[in-house]
C-alpha cells in the first residue's frame, strides 16, 4: 500500500456521508469512527472531517496496558482487538486528536482502521470513496505531492489566480500510511 | 446479461458469499451509480458498494445514498394491502383490496361520470412506471384528471425551457463537461446539500480557476465557496436576473453574432432591462450594488459559462419568468450548444426528467406530445389501441385538483409514488380535500402521511425490487436493476395498474410480463415526439454508460449536447424574454413583516417519507427548525434553541430557533421534510405561476413570536 489519506477541510460540505459510509464498512459493526464538526455554526457553515491520523508512533497504542491496539505492516493503526481490550479507556485519553471512541455496552474501544479490509487491497476506505466533495481522498503519494504544489502552480496561470475569498490559507493536510 | 457491470482495472471489494448488483440511487436527479450488496445464499440486501466507474458521479454518494438500501428490508414496510375499516387499517388480501377498488371505481364512475376519478402521480419511479401512470389514468380509468408531483418541483423549469428553447431538457450539456467550464452562475440552488455529488464537478473546475457566482438568500455550503454570493431577498430573482442582463448588455458582453443568428426578441429584451440599473436592482433585491457589478463582469468575461438554477427560482409565482431570464443570460453570452457551457436545472426527483416527459402531466402525452394536438392524440391512441375519441381532454394541475375535490367534481383519487399531504403548499387545504374524498387509494411502500388518509393502501416495491430505466438530470437514460425479488406481498406499480385495468375491463391494454415489454411499447410511443427514446435499448445503456435523449434510432448516438445547431422552436431560434418586475404573491406587511423561505437539508429527501425512517439520517436531523440571523433574533429577544411560534396568514407552527450569521437578517428558513404539525407547508403560499401552475413555496410573509 503506497496510498495516503488526503484531507482538504475547505471542501467539506458537512453532509456526513463519510460517517454514514463508515458504518457500512464490514468490520465496523455499524458504528462510525470518524467525525464531522462545524467550525462555528454561528459564524459560518464551514465544517471539517476528522479521522485517525494513523500516527507512526501512536499514543493510543503506547498507553494501552493490554497491547490491544495493533499496527499492521503497512502502518495502519487498527481498532483494539476484541480479545485483548480491557476497557480501561486509556487510549481515549491518550490520543491528542480525540479519535478513539468507547462503547460502554461492549466495554471496549473502537477507532478508525482505514477500512483495513479495503485499503489492504488498495481499495479506497468507505469515507474517501463516497465523499462528494473530495474533501477526503485516498490517493497516491505522488498525486498528493502534486496537489500540494498546486497553489503555486495556480499563481502562474494568468487570470486564474485564486481570489481573496478562496480560503487557500488553510494548508491542505495529509496523513495516513506511506511506506516505501 | 451480467448484473454487475464494472470497467477493467476498477477494484471493488467483493466479499465472500455476496454478489454486487449494479444500479443507481433511489433518491435525487443525480442518480448516483452504486452497487448493492446481496447475499448469494439468502438473497438478502447486505449494503452498498461505491460504483467508482460510473462516469457522472465516480462512486461518490451522499448520506442518503449510502443508507438508501436500508429502505428495502425495513420494518416499516407495508407487507400486505391495507383496507380502512372503522377508521383503522386492516391487513387484507390483494383480491379483497382490488375488488373493493373495482367496486368503488365503477360505482363512482356510473354515478358521477368518468371524471369523478383522478390520479396523482409521482416521478421517483422508473420511466416505465411513469409512462404507465398516464396510460392507466387515460385508458383504464378514462379520466381527464391526472397530474403529478412534478408540479411542485420541476414544472417551472419545464415551462421556461419550453418557452425559450421549445424543448424542456433539464441540461443542455453532459455534466461530465462541467469541470472544463470557467464560470458557474448558480441561482436558487443549495447544490452542496440537495445534490451533494455534483459539488465535485464544481471543485474540479475551481481547481483550474473557474469562478462561482451563487444567488441565494442564505450563505449555504454552496454559497460559502462562491467568488460572489448574491444574497438576495427571497422572491426577487427576476429583478436580479434583469439587473445582470442590463449589465451584460451595457458592458458589451453580448455575443452579438450568436444572438442575431439564433435568438428572437433581442430588442424587446434590451428595452425591458433598460430600467434595471445596478442601483434599481440593488434596491429591489437587497443585494449590494458592487456585488452585482462584480458578478456581471465575472460572468461576462468568462469564455465558457454555465447558468444553473433549481427550486429556489422555480418555486415562485413567477418561476417561469425567472427561468427564462436566467436562460437569457446564457443566450446573450452565446453559450448554449457549446462545449462545457450552457444552461441546466438541478432536477430534484430521481426521475424528474424522465417522469415529466411521458404523459403524467395533465396536458401531455408520451414523448412530450401535447394532448391538444389532434395528430399526437391520434398517434398515441393507435399505440394504446384505443379510438382517438376515447382520449380524455386535458385536466388541471396538481394543486388545482384539490380545488376540484373541494367543489365536488373529483370523488376519488389514486395517489401513486407521492406524498402530497406533506409536499402541497397550504397543506391543510389538501388534508381537507383528502378527508372529503369518497375513496382514496394510495400506492406506497411506507405508510406515508397521505396513505394515512387512504381507504385502501396497496404495498408497492422499492426501487431495488424492480427493473427499469430512469433519466437523470443531464437527460441521460440509465438503468435500474432488480437486486431482490419483491418482499412480503408487495407488487411493482405496473403490475398493480394491470390488475386494476383487468378488473375494469381494460386488461388487454395492460398485458405486460415485465418492465422490458413496457419499455418496448414506450419506445414506440415516444417515437417522433420531442423526447424521442425510440433508439434506446437496455443493452445500449449498459454498453454506453447511458444514452442521452433525443435518440430517434438505434444507430443514433444520442444527444449529449443539445441545441448545437438550432433550437426546437418552430423557427429554430430561441425566444428571449421581456419581463417586467413583479412582486411575489405575498409581500411583508405590518402584521407579517418577515419573509419565510423553505428548503431542504442534506439528510432528507422530499416529503421525508423514506428518509425519516432511516436511523442515521434521523440522528442527524430529527425535526425541522427555524434558522435565522442573530440580529433578527435579538429584536424579538430570542435565543438559540428556544421554541418560537412562526405564523403566516394561513397557519402557524412551533419551531426551535437555530441561529447563524450565514443568512440574511430579514428571513426565516425552515426545512420542509416533515408532516402533520411539523409541516412548514401548512404555512406556505399556494399562489400559482400563471403558466407552470407551480406554487410559491419559496417566499411568503411571516411573523415570529416568542413563546
UniProtKB/TrEMBL annotation, chain A:
Entry keyword Hydrolase: no
Pfam families noted in UniProt: Fer4_11, Fer4_2
4Fe-4S ferredoxin-type domain boundaries: 3-33, 43-74, 76-105
Matches recorded under InterPro entries: 4Fe4S_Fe-S-bd, 4Fe4S_Fe_S_CS, ET_IronSulfur_Cluster-Binding
Keywords, in A-Z order: 4Fe-4S, Iron, Iron-sulfur, Metal-binding
One function term, GO molecular function aspect: 4 iron, 4 sulfur cluster binding
Name of the protein in question: 4Fe-4S ferredoxin
Taxonomy of the source species: Bacteria, Bacillati, Bacillota, Bacilli, Bacillales
Automatic annotation (TrEMBL), chain B:
Keywords: 4Fe-4S, Iron, Iron-sulfur, Metal-binding
Domain 4Fe-4S Mo/W bis-MGD-type: 18-76
Record's protein name: Formate dehydrogenase subunit alpha
A GO term, aspect molecular function: formate dehydrogenase (NAD+) activity
Pfam hit, one: Molydop_binding
Classification via SUPFAM superfamilies: ADC-like, Formate dehydrogenase/DMSO reductase, domains 1-3
Cellular component terms (Gene Ontology): membrane
Amino acid at each position: 500500500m503506497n496510498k495516503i489519506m488526503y484531507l482538504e477541510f475547505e471542501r467539506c460540505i458537512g453532509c456526513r456521508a463519510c460517517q454514514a459510509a463508515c458504518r457500512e464498512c464490514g468490520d465496523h459493526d455499524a458504528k462510525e469512527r470518524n467525525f464531522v464538526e462545524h467550525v462555528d455554526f454561528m459564524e459560518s457553515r464551514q465544517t471539517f472531517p476528522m479521522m485517525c491520523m494513523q500516527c507512526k508512533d501512536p499514543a493510543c497504542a503506547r498507553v494501552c496496558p493490554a497491547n490491544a491496539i495493533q499496527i499492521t505492516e503497512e502502518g495502519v493503526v487498527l481498532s483494539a482487538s476484541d480479545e485483548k481490550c480491557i476497557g480501561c479507556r486509556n487510549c481515549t485519553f491518550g490520543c491528542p486528536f480525540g479519535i478513539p471512541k468507547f462503547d460502554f455496552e461492549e466495554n471496549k474501544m473502537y477507532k478508525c482502521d482505514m477500512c483495513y479490509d479495503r485499503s489492504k487491497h488498495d481499495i479506497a476506505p468507505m469515507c474517501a470513496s463516497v465523499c462528494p466533495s473530495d474533501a477526503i481522498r485516498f490517493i497516491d503519494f505522488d498525486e498528493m505531492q502534486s496537489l500540494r504544489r498546486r497553489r503555486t502552480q495556480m499563481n502562474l496561470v494568468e487570470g486564474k489566480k485564486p481570489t481573496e475569498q478562496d480560503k487557500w490559507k488553510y494548508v491542505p493536510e495529509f496523513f495516513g500510511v506511506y511506506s516505501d | 446479461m451480467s448484473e454487475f457491470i464494472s470497467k477493467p482495472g476498477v477494484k471493488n471489494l467483493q466479499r465472500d458469499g455476496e454478489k454486487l448488483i449494479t444500479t443507481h440511487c433511489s433518491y435525487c436527479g443525480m442518480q448516483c451509480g452504486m452497487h448493492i450488496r446481496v447475499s448469494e445464499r439468502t438473497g438478502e440486501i447486505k449494503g452498498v458498494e461505491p460504483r467508482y466507474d460510473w462516469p457522472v458521479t465516480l462512486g461518490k454518494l451522499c448520506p442518503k445514498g449510502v443508507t438508501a438500501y436500508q429502505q428495502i428490508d425495513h420494518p416499516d414496510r407495508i407487507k400486505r394491502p391495507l383496507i380502512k375499516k372503522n377508521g383503522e387499517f386492516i391487513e387484507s388480501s390483494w383480491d379483497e383490496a382490488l375488488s373493493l377498488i373495482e367496486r368503488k371505481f365503477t360505482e363512482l364512475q356510473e354515478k358521477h361520470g368518468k371524471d369523478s376519478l383522478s390520479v396523482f402521480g409521482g416521478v421517483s419511479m422508473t420511466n416505465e412506471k411513469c409512462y404507465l401512470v398516464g396510460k392507466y389514468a387515460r385508458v383504464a380509468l378514462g379520466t381527464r384528471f391526472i397530474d403529478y408531483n412534478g408540479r411542485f418541483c420541476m414544472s417551472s423549469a419545464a415551462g421556461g425551457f419550453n418557452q425559450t428553447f421549445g424543448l424542456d431538457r433539464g441540461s443542455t450539456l453532459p455534466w461530465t463537461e462541467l469541470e472544463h467550464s470557467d464560470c458557474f452562475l448558480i441561482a436558487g440552488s443549495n447544490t452542496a446539500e440537495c445534490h451533494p455529488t455534483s459539488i465535485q464537478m464544481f471543485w474540479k473546475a475551481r481547481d483550474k480557476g473557474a469562478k462561482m457566482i451563487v444567488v441565494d438568500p442564505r450563505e449555504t455550503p454552496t454559497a460559502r465557496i462562491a467568488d460572489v454570493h448574491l444574497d438576495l431577498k427571497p422572491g426577487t430573482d427576476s429583478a436580479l436576473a434583469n439587473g445582470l442582463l442590463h449589465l451584460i448588455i451595457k458592458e458589451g458582453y453580448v455575443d452579438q453574432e450568436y444572438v442575431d443568428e439564433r435568438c428572437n426578441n433581442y430588442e424587446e429584451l434590451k428595452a425591458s432591462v433598460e430600467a434595471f440599473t445596478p442601483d434599481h436592482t440593488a434596491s429591489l433585491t437587497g443585494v449590494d450594488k458592487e456585488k452585482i457589478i462584480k458578478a456581471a463582469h465575472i460572468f461576462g468575461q468568462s469564455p465558457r459559462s454555465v447558468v444553473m438554477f433549481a427550486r429556489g427560482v422555480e418555486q415562485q409565482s413567477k418561476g417561469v419568468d425567472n427561468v427564462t431570464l436566467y436562460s437569457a443570460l446564457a443566450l446573450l453570452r452565446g453559450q448554449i450548444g457549446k462545449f462545457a457551457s450552457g444552461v441546466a436545472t438541478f432536477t430534484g426527483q430521481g426521475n424528474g426528467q424522465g417522469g415529466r416527459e411521458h404523459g403524467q402531466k395533465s396536458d401531455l402525452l408520451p414523448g412530450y406530445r401535447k394532448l391538444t394536438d389532434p395528430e399526437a392524440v391520434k398517434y398515441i391512441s393507435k399505440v394504446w389501441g384505443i379510438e382517438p375519441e376515447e382520449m380524455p381532454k386535458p385536466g388541471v394541475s396538481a394543486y388545482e385538483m384539490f380545488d376540484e375535490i373541494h367543489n365536488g367534481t373529483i370523488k376519488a383519487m389514486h395517489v401513486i409514488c407521492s406524498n402530497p399531504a406533506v409536499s402541497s403548499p397550504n397543506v391543510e387545504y389538501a388534508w381537507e380535500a383528502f378527508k372529503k374524498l369518497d375513496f382514496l387509494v394510495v400506492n406506497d411502500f411506507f405508510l406515508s402521511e397521505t396513505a394515512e388518509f387512504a381507504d385502501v393502501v396497496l404495498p408497492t416495491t422499492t426501487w431495488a425490487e424492480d427493473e427499469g430505466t430512469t433519466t437523470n438530470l443531464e437527460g441521460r437514460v440509465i438503468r435500474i436493476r432488480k437486486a431482490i425479488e419483491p418482499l412480503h406481498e408487495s407488487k411493482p406499480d405496473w403490475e398493480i395498474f394491470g390488475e386494476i385495468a383487468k378488473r375494469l375491463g381494460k386488461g388487454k391494454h395492460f398485458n405486460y410480463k415485465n418492465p422490458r415489454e413496457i419499455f418496448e411499447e414506450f419506445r414506440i410511443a415516444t417515437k417522433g415526439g420531442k423526447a424521442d427514446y425510440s433508439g434506446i435499448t437496455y443493452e445500449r445503456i449498459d454498453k454506453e454508460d447511458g444514452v442521452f435523449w433525443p435518440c430517434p434510432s438505434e444507430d443514433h448516438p444520442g444527444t449529449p449536447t443539445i441545441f448545437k445547431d438550432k433550437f426546437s422552436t418552430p423557427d429554430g431560434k430561441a425566444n428571449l424574454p421581456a419581463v417586467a418586475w413583479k412582486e411575489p404573491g405575498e409581500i411583508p406587511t405590518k402584521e407579517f413583516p418577515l419573509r419565510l423561505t423553505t428548503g431542504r437539508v442534506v439528510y432528507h429527501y422530499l416529503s421525508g417519507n423514506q428518509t425519516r425512517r432511516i436511523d442515521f439520517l434521523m440522528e442527524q436531523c430529527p425535526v425541522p427548525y427555524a434558522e435565522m440571523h442573530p440580529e433578527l433574533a435579538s429584536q424579538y429577544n430570542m435565543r438559540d434553541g428556544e421554541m418560537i411560534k412562526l405564523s403566516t396568514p394561513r397557519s402557524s407552527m412551533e419551531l426551535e430557533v437555530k441561529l447563524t450569521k450565514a443568512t440574511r437578517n430579514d428571513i426565516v428558513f425552515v426545512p420542509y421534510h416533515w408532516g402533520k404539525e411539523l409541516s412548514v407547508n401548512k404555512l406556505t403560499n399556494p399562489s400559482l405561476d400563471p403558466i407552470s401552475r407551480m406554487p410559491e413555496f419559496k417566499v411568503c410573509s411571516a411573523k415570529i413570536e416568542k413563546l
